Amino acid sequence: MACDGIWDVLTSQEAVSFVLKNTYKNKYNTHRRTIAELQRGVENLLDACCAEDLHESDGIGTDNMTAVLVEIAK
Questions:
Q1: Residue 39: how many CB atoms within 10 A of its CB?
Q2: What is the separation, in whole angstroms, between the first and last Cα of the chain?
Q3: How far is Cα 1 from Cα 68, in angstroms, rounded to an integer?
Q4: What is the average pLDDT score of the chain?
Q5: Distance (Å, whole) CA 6 – CA 21
Q6: Gap between the Cα atoms of 25 and 72, Å rounded
Q7: CA-to-CA distance for 68 and 42, rounded, in angstroms?
Q8: Contacts of 4 (CB under 8 A, 6+ apart)
Q9: C-beta of residue 23 within 8 angstroms of C-beta of residue 47
Q10: What's this model's pTM, rounded to 2 decimal places?
Q11: How far apart are CA 9 and CA 46, in angstroms?
């Protein structure tokens, strides 16, 4: 779940792919993550969405950003 500050930068699929690659390392690894690992995953997602250059961003990546990563246990 995330606010428009994330969705202005990434599509839903790009966000899911980012989390799978960077938090879970691949889409087939099913072991549960610790709260600290999930927190780092969200922090990495937010960092990736931040504009690197405010003058050349056209406002993309400069909005406030909120995201919640929910892991559903089977």
A1: 13
A2: 19
A3: 5
A4: 80
A5: 17
A6: 17
A7: 7
A8: 63
A9: no
A10: 0.75
A11: 10
SS (H, E, C) the chain: CECHHHHCCCCHHHHHHHHHHHCCCCCCCCCCCCHHHHHHHHHHHHHHHCCCCHHHCCCCCCCCCCECCCCCCC
- CB-based burial label for 6 (10 Å; 0-12, 13-18, 19+): buried
Instruction: Give residue-wise pLDDT tens across range 32-49.
Output: 788 888 888 899 998 888
- Structure-block tokens of residue 52: 């690197």
38 φ/ψ angles, rounded to the nearest 5 degrees: -65, -40
Cα(48)–Cα(50) distance, integer angstroms: 6
Tokens of 10: 């990434």
